[in-house]
Design brief:
Elements lengths: L2 E7 L13 E2 L2 E2 H9 L8 E5 L2 H9 L3 E4 L7 H9 L6 E5 L8 H13 L4 E8 L11 E4 L5 E5 L16 E10 L1 H9 L5 H6 L5 H5 L3 E5 L11 H11 L1
Parallel strand pairs: 1-4, 1-6, 4-5, 7-11
Antiparallel strand pairs: 2-3, 6-10, 7-10, 8-9
Helix pairs in contact: 3-5
């Protein structure tokens, strides 16, 4: 079963322009993510999908493949879907270019889950503390007893009317996903952001309108997504430790 890893890398990020080329301890973030992916699949099955020639030049310099995509892609998954039209594969793994601490074994876990649940979108998650539950840059996830996604929000979920409730548990999305080509085509051909997707600015919510279930897979702790410039220091501190 042919598998491809595609890393969407948009230069014009609204919260952090030029984010894929941000330097983390002397190395561009996109290169750190690519080196992690190379521990999972051979280099011929790894692609960067971008609209920017600076990113293309940097990635090509280190021997990795690049697929140029439209600057009008609505989300990273739309960018992946556009790139997937040029890739012959059965399973597409979306590793976000802003996950420089993602572990190879967690990417492998997402791949195994997609083989087990071929007709479900696969998404990673892990636990977070109550303080981080209030960070609107971190999508929180709520799922049922079968680990299927119920909802995803930038607000702390699940909520409670009891403010003194103890033993609160919160989980965050880890931006490693798995799709088949049919799921990507439906997502892309929807042609617009869904209502919930627009409200929360979380692209996976579009699959709710498409009737495609999302299976949540627990991954290890320690991944720090770089959403804003301040997150670079968090990653560098982690790497120093």
């Amino acid at each position: 079963m042919k598998i491809a890893i595609v890393i969407p890398a948009r230069y014009k990020s609204s919260r952090f322009p030029g984010k894929p080329l941000a330097i983390i301890k002397g190395k561009e973030m996109i290169l750190r993510v690519l080196e992690i992916c190379k521990k999972v699949l051979k280099i011929d099955d790894i692609y960067v999908a971008t609209e920017n020639k600076l990113i293309k030049k940097k990635v090509n310099k280190y021997g990795f493949k690049v697929i140029m995509t439209s600057s009008k892609c609505k989300t990273g998954t739309d960018r992946l879907a556009e790139a997937a039209k040029k890739i012959k594969a059965k399973i597409f793994i979306n590793v976000q270019g802003d996950e420089p601490l993602i572990k190879p074994q967690d990417i492998k876990k997402i791949i195994l889950a997609k083989k087990k649940y071929p007709n479900k979108v696969i998404c990673g998650y892990t636990t977070i503390n109550e303080k981080d539950s209030n960070n609107k840059n971190i999508p929180k996830v709520l799922f049922n007893i079968d680990n299927e996604l119920i909802y995803m929000s930038r607000l702390p979920i699940p909520g409670s009317k009891n403010k003194t409730r103890k033993n609160k548990k919160y989980f965050k999305q880890v931006c490693v996903y798995a799709f088949n080509k049919n799921e990507l085509n439906k997502f892309y051909n929807f042609g617009k952001k869904s209502i919930a997707e627009q409200q929360e600015d979380i692209e996976l919510l579009r699959f709710f309108d498409l009737g495609i279930p999302v299976q949540m897979i627990k991954l290890s702790k320690g991944s720090i997504a770089v959403d804003v410039k301040a997150d670079i220091k968090k990653v560098e501190f982690f790497l120093t430790k």
